[in-house]
Design a protein that fits this description.
9-stranded mixed sheet; Aminopeptidase; alpha+beta; globular
């Protein structure tokens, strides 16, 4: 298998993380507001956790388990978020879309742009049939990102996740390959390149 390609969109470069990104990941993902809205981000963000997480990316990609990108933009030094397809299941042709964006970048459309490119990559390069995503019900902004990406609201799961001592409701969204082709007529990826 070739290396993980970088994806270029209109405003963003989605590239593989490097260990040099770890301090920024810890700082940005460790922001209380970011962590409180994400299903899998701990708070406080432990020392060494970013390095450990990044260290799993290459082997996970090579084994076909996931593809994770640093979301970068020209105005910022280093990553401003992460996006990826995790829980890739080749047998069933599906994967879960996951993302977070630094709080100072909220409201700029970066999550939607990065998610659209990642979905397109999942369908056009990985050959997936279905991509789904989940968000805490108390975070409707994430649901709007999913809707803008052509996803359909599929379920409301009551008290589905345990986060910081509370059972949280979760909403599930999904899109099928054929639906994506119908709804997203403008390509999300301008360029796909392997470094």
């Amino acid at each position: 298998m070739t290396g993980q390609p970088a994806l270029v969109t209109d405003r963003l470069l989605l590239r593989p993380f490097t260990l040099a990104d770890a301090p920024e990941v810890q700082r940005l993902a460790g922001d209380y507001e970011v962590a409180s809205h994400a299903l899998g981000i701990p708070y406080p963000y432990p020392d060494g956790a970013a390095e450990n997480w990044i260290a799993t990316h290459r082997s996970g990609f090579e084994k076909g388990m996931h593809v994770v990108y640093a979301v970068t933009c020209p105005e910022e030094q280093g990553p401003v978020g992460a996006v990826g397809l995790v829980e890739v299941n080749r047998r069933h042709g599906r994967a879960e879309l996951s993302y977070w964006v630094a709080r100072h970048c909220w409201g700029r459309g970066y999550a939607t742009e990065a998610a659209r490119a990642t979905i397109e990559y999942g369908f056009s390069v990985l050959g997936l049939h279905r991509i789904y995503a989940m968000h805490f019900s108390r975070n409707p902004a994430s649901g709007r990102v999913m809707e803008k990406c052509g996803m359909v609201h599929e379920a409301h799961l009551r008290e589905h996740d345990w986060k910081w001592g509370v059972f949280e409701d979760v909403d599930v969204w999904g899109v099928l390959h054929d639906e994506w082709l119908e709804r997203c007529t403008v390509p999300a990826i301008r360029e796909c390149r392997v470094h």
